[in-house]
Amino acid sequence: MLVIPFSTTMQVDAMEAAIQAEHRRIQIERANKVLFDETDKVKTLHGKMLESDSIKENKALVDYKRQIAVLRKAQDAAFVDQQRQALEVRRRVLVWCRS
Fold first, then answer.
1. Cβ–Cβ < 8 Å for 42, 34
2. In 3D, which of 46, 44, 45, 48 has the Cα closest to residue 56?
């Protein structure tokens, strides 16, 4: 049979008590955080933050679409200009061939 000295048993008990106290403290902190997060003020804050993020994302999307529209318009204008130049060259060639 293993005999553990009394002082060692007390040290183990003290360490175990400290560990249990730390676990209780952590659980109490978690519970307090959950209770705090469930308050109306915090819920309202989280809702406003979500709304703010949504508005910000929507503005970014609108700006992106506006930039795409500007680029498409410029691309279309460049294409039209290129086609006009090609028609002008063709017209000149036809005029030159007829003369």
1. no
2. 48
The span from the CA of 87 to the CA of 95, in Å, is 12
Q: State how far the Cα of 90 lies from the Cα of 92, in Å rounded to an integer.
A: 5
Evaluate if pTM is beyond 0.70: no
Alpha helix positions (H), the chain = 6-37, 40-98
At 26, list the tokens. 């952590």
Q: Which amino acid, residue 96?
A: W
Q: What is the pLDDT of residues 87-99, one digit of tens each?
A: 999 888 888 887 6
Count of positions (residues) in the chain: 99
Q: Which amino acid is at 3?
A: V
